[in-house]
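User: Hi! I have a protein structure encoded as tokens and I'd like to know what sequence might fold into it. I'm fairly new to this, so please keep things simple.
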């Protein structure tokens, strides 16, 4: 509606208020007055009605959440799922390849699995168990079964190997690990260490091929009767449900605590975006991340919708899957949409039933191209952190935005943007020691107050890791804020835009890469004196690609084959550097890569020996076979010249 039309509506309602006051009708007067206030807000903000519609959904979901809370200690995600199984026993819950798992079938199978784990695995309430399972129905059943036993589950990333995998397992506090038969090779290098420390490894869904592992065997012969309720006595919304790993802004991955409360809150997202119980939601994102496990999986449980699960994303099969399963809602990250747009055009690109897309990390240009090519799909870009207490959803469809904040939304989702010194890696403070708010159009560090309604559960294990994510004395001496580690820009119209990430991480292929972790791994090599890791932009790609700057020890020679063998052994594929340069002197900074990334490439960089991964193509994941000198520096120059901050 144009501004003139909104003004006419405002004047008309004001006239009704005047007439009702003259007529002496109190009810009509009050109703017209409320309408006048709404019209006034609508004149100022044309998207006010959209915000009210979203908050109506929010209010309805709050009622469901309140009902669960009042029913504590039993009120949790499992109760919601049990209710869905009773109400929708034959409805499709999970579709995977050519198999279908109904809500009722999942309820029965998860009880069988819970009984098998309790009897053969000797598990009891409170035991933390790590699971290494790919995108398949077994992941869903195992998550439900462990929750029914009252055992928090740590979701391990199956891209990790050896050192990184062992770190993630240890920080969870687990003493048992369940691996699916198809993921056993992931544990091959870590298995000797696990056995030496007394860890029990169970293989589920097939024969055990790992030395020292035990077969759990078939669980289908177990009874599907629920276990005694006493096993879950005391489990409330604040109880730990599972742990999801995140790099945050520094260091090695940390196990973020996801409670039943946190999972239910995240499960609201599809509903807030307009999804219903009749929708079929498609995800190819890994379930070990919160986007798929909380928003897609738990979101389907909350709605009573159907989840279509794919083992791994395939650009060539994406739309075929959507047509096959009559998908109406898709989940994305920015790379997925770009891959789909880069596929060869087909006459049936618009022949599908998808009406809604929910995700994050989508560039404005890719967003526009995606909608123009694949039809009128409503894009809901969101912002959230696995362990965070603040989130935004762009349901208005503003290109490139992560959401919008107004006086109304800020009452329910409080946050602040504060000025941040990137060079000194700390917030700017005034003479009183308080942080300074960032103005409109200026990048600011996103922080959110930690309150009872917006808690920060932190990480499992070392409490100092959780404390490092908090800012104290921000505006008052006694206040506490969660530090997201993200720089956000809020324009004068209220729309929010992601600007950059602070700290020693960059994002590549949908994963956070901790520069300190990669640097520590490279520093283990006998010929490396100092390793400096940072991410640089590559044209046409989301995130940043890894570049390593090495200083060799005196009289030592660079050994590319040893380097390749080393990083393949210790680092997951997405964290392995694609580009490498050798420096003649130390950078003088332990984590100085971030400073170079912000400041751009130096001219001297191009004169130093540079290397490119053999056969490297940034559009595909390839094995790290070797490093070779970049011929003519063309590839190297193209990457480092794209650093734009």
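Assistant: Happy to help. Inverse folding works backwards from shape to sequence: for each of the 645 positions I chose a residue that suits the local structure. Here it is:
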């Amino acid at each position: 509606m144009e501004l003139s039309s909104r003004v006419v509506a405002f004047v008309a309602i004001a006239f009704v208020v005047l007439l009702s006051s003259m007529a002496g009708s109190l009810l009509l007067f009050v109703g017209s007055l409320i309408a006048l206030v709404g019209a006034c807000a609508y004149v100022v903000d044309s998207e006010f009605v959209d915000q009210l519609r979203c908050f109506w959904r929010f209010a309805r979901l709050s009622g469901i959440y309140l009902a669960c809370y009042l029913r504590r200690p039993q009120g949790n995600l499992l109760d919601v799922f049990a209710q869905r199984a009773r109400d929708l026993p034959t409805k499709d819950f999970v579709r995977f390849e050519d198999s279908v798992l109904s809500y009722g079938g999942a309820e029965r199978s998860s009880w069988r699995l819970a009984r098998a784990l309790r009897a053969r695995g000797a598990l009891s309430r409170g035991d933390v168990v790590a699971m290494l399972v790919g995108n398949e129905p077994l992941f869903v059943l195992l998550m439900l079964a462990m929750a029914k036993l009252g055992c928090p589950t740590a979701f391990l990333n199956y891209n990790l190997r050896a050192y990184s995998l062992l770190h993630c397992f240890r920080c969870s506090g687990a003493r048992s690990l369940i691996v699916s038969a198809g993921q056993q090779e992931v544990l091959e290098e870590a298995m000797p260490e696990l056995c030496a420390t007394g860890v029990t490894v169970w293989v589920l869904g097939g024969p055990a091929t790992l030395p020292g592992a035990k077969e759990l065997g078939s669980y289908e012969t177990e009874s599907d009767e629920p276990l005694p309720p006493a096993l879950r006595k005391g489990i409330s919304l604040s109880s730990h449900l599972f742990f999801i790993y995140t790099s945050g802004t520094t260091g090695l991955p940390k196990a973020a605590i996801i409670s039943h409360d946190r999972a239910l809150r995240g499960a609201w997202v599809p509903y807030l975006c307009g999804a219903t119980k009749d929708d079929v939601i498609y995800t190819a994102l890994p379930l070990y991340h919160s986007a798929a496990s909380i928003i897609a999986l738990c979101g389907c449980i909350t709605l009573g919708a159907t989840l279509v699960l794919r083992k791994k994303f395939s650009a060539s099969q994406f739309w075929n899957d959507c047509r096959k399963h009559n998908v109406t809602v898709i989940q994305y990250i920015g790379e997925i949409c770009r891959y789909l747009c880069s596929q060869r055009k087909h006459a049936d690109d618009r022949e599908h039933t998808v009406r809604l897309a929910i995700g994050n990390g989508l560039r404005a240009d890719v967003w526009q191209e995606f909608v123009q090519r694949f039809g009128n799909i409503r894009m809901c870009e969101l912002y959230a952190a696995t362990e965070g207490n603040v989130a935004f959803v762009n349901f208005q469809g503003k290109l490139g935005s992560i959401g919008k904040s107004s006086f109304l939304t800020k009452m329910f989702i409080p946050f602040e943007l504060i000025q941040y010194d990137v060079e000194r890696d700390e917030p700017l403070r005034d003479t009183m020691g308080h942080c300074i708010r960032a103005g409109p159009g200026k990048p600011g560090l996103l922080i959110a107050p930690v309150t009872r309604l917006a808690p920060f559960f932190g990480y499992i294990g070392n409490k100092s890791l959780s404390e490092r994510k908090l800012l104290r004395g921000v505006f008052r001496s006694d206040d506490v804020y969660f530090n997201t580690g993200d720089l956000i820009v809020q324009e004068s119209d209220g729309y929010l835009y992601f600007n950059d990430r602070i700290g020693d991480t960059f994002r590549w292929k949908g994963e956070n890469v901790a520069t300190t972790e990669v640097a520590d791994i490279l520093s283990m090599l006998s010929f490396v004196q100092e390793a400096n890791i940072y991410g640089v932009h590559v044209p046409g790609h989301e995130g940043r690609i890894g570049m390593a700057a090495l200083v060799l020890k005196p009289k030592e020679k660079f050994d590319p084959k040893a380097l390749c063998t080393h990083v393949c052994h210790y680092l997951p594929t997405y964290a392995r550097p694609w580009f490498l340069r050798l420096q003649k002197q130390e950078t003088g900074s332990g984590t100085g890569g971030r400073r170079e990334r912000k400041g751009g490439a130096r001219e001297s960089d191009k004169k130093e020996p540079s290397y490119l991964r053999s056969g490297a193509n940034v559009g595909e994941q390839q094995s790290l076979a070797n490093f070779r000198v970049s011929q003519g520096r063309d590839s190297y120059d193209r990457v480092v010249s794209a650093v734009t901050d």
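A useful reference point when you look it over: Residues 68-74, 587-606, 614-645 have pLDDT under 50 and may be disordered. Feel free to ask if any position seems puzzling.
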